[in-house]
Amino acid sequence: MDTIASLFSFITTPVSWIIVQFHKLYGAMFGPDTGWAWGLSIVSLVVLIRICLIPLFVKQIKSTRNMQALQPKMKAIQERYKNDKQRQSEEMMKLYKETGTNPLSSCLPILAQSPFFFALYHVLSKIASGDEIGVLNKSLVDSAREAHIFGAPIAAKFMDDPGKVEALNASLVDVRIVTAIMIIMMSLSQFFTQRQLMQKNVDLTVKTPYMQQQKMLMYIFPIIFAVMGINFPVGVLVYWLTTNVWTMGQQMYVINQNPTPGSKAQDHYLQRLVKSVTAHGEVRGRRRRSVVQAIVAKGPDRNDNERKFISALAKAGFTAQADGSVQKVDPATAEAENAAATRRQQPKRQPKAKRQAGAAQPSTAKTSLEKTSLEKTDAPQDATSNQQAKPAAGAARQAKSGQRKGQQRPKHPSSKK
Predict the structure, then answer these.
(1) Helix 138-146 vs helix 108-129: angle between axes, to the nearest 10 degrees?
(2) How much is the average pLDDT of 371-398?
(3) Using CB atoms within 10 A of its CB, is residue 61 exposed (0-12), middle (13-18) or buried (19+)?
(4) Cα 201 from Cα 70, distance rounded (Å)
(5) Whole-angstrom distance between the N-terminal and C-terminal Cα of the chain?
(6) What is the per-residue pLDDT across 32-55, written as a single tens digit (0 to 9) for each?
(7) What pairing do the DSSP bridges indicate for beta strands 318-320 and 152-153?
(8) Which of 128, 159, 156, 160 is nearest to 141 (CA)?
(9) Which residues make beta-bridge pairs with 133?
(10) What are the residue ranges of helices labelled H in 230-330?
(11) What does pTM read for this prediction?
């Protein structure tokens, strides 16, 4: 880890300068040698970095959604060119180019944070050894060494030996308790963030290997962080726990305000929107109007959540307009118009798998055709036999009843009455 951190030593000066500036602010409030001053300086560093990374976070969201939407097409390409890896890669790149999707965009926030993370690790390692680094002079290094967060020095690690911990004026038990609690919180926050994404903000109608990969990462990432966390200084654990909490809150806001189409979060969002429209009689907010406008523009291509939304508006006596607004109408009329629009929708095309399954049964169709032709061939014979059988059956019934029905032959003059 120290070797990797040294590769990012070029950014240690900016990172140390930012920490020193925040330390001046918090040092005046809590004291320059306190854990609150140095700990809050690290937290503020995280907040500043994450604010600067918001544009990358937006790109990450768009890239993740595009990747989810492209999964069926990507799977079809893999099946079509499964024996030609080069052609498969070419078709994949062509698909990414046509749709404007960059698979690496989902990793941009993590990649952008890596230099700051390793630079902070390098700074804290130097503080633990008492060496000056960046703009941290000897007095600032000594002040940081004296800073304790709940009894653990910010430069101490879970795996440090007792002698090193004693040199930092701390107890090994305190260090391991604090670091263990922070590692558990860091792993749980990572797990909850990924679980929130998988359960609420994923299109449940798309079942692809990508979904399984994301589900696996939900369990793998917390384990990786827990294993790596035992080698992180307390200050780095503060950094990573803060960035996890920020990510969780940022993602929660996005899920509530801009959910993925077809997800549970979209269903909850549209239900809240219906309640708002019912209460105020209008769509409040430009962003909400753009959502309604997009749903109206989809027409028959709406997903189940969006169709439920239009039906709920109709029951409440509103119809959605093309400009994103709503118009008050009679509930019965709105429901009738919505039902008529639903009937006009064209049936969806069957999936490729079903079409192939139907085409793969020529023998069954042929057998049915032959059976039908045989029945047609045998039909005249059956009709003749039936016609012959009918008079016999009628005569038997007439003999039994002693009555004659139908046209009778005239009696001969010599016949007895």
Answers:
(1) 100
(2) 45
(3) middle
(4) 16
(5) 128
(6) 889 999 999 999 999 998 898 888
(7) unpaired
(8) 128
(9) 136
(10) 234-257, 264-280, 286-298, 304-315
(11) 0.68
